[in-house]
Amino acid sequence: MNVAYIALGANLSNPETTFRQAVAEMSANKIDILAASSLWHSPAWPAGLGHPDYVNAALKVSTSLDAVELLRWLHTLEAQFGRERLILNAPRSLDLDIIDYAGQVRTANPILPHPRSHQRAFVLLPLLEIEAAWEHPEWDKSALELLAELPLKDVLDHAVIKRDWLNS
């Protein structure tokens, strides 16, 4: 079994309900949920396009799937929830990204760790919440250290909107 960290995001429909349903699908398909962050409010990105704000979360999971199989499975799950990859940065019903898979560093698909995770407060804040000791596999920096390198406004634009959402 391998430990992976998965980022969840959505800004269409009801993200909390979608996340619960997606986690139920994961649990039914060889992906054990070890920890779930709170739900976080994140401003739409990129700014200025008029898209709805996001809800984000992170999961720590254990799976027998390898990284390629896991990514393929997550993309299939996104499609089941109506995700279409037609326009870059378009609003989405469900976005699932592998942030880290067993500490692997890969340059082929899937690129690991996620190539932009260190630049995104909406990934690092939930990740810090579920795994304070997590370190970026390439740079040996913790989520807290990476957050400290971001512009303060980027970090302060995020807020917890619901704790323990998976069990409520």
Give a description of the structure.
With 168 residues, the protein is α+β, with helices and mostly antiparallel strands. The protein has helices at 15-27, 67-80, 121-130, 143-148, 152-156; strands at 2-10, 31-36, 39-42, 54-63, 95-101, 159-162. Strands 1, 2, 3, 4, 5 and 6 form a 6-stranded antiparallel sheet that branches. The radius of gyration is 15 Å and the shape is globular. It starts with a strand and ends in a 6-residue tail after the last strand. 34% of the residues are buried.
Strand share of the residues?
15-25%
Per DSSP, the total helix count is 5
How many beta-strand runs?
6
Any low-confidence stretches, pLDDT <50, length ≥5? none
Shape: globular
Distance between the termini: 28 Å
Mean pLDDT: 94
Alpha-beta classification: alpha+beta
Largest sheet: 6 strands, antiparallel
Rg (CA only)? 15 Å
Q: Percent helix among the residues?
A: 25-40%
SSE pattern: EHEEEHEHHHE
Structure at a glance:
By secondary structure, the protein is α+β, with helices and mostly antiparallel strands. The protein is built from five helices and six strands.
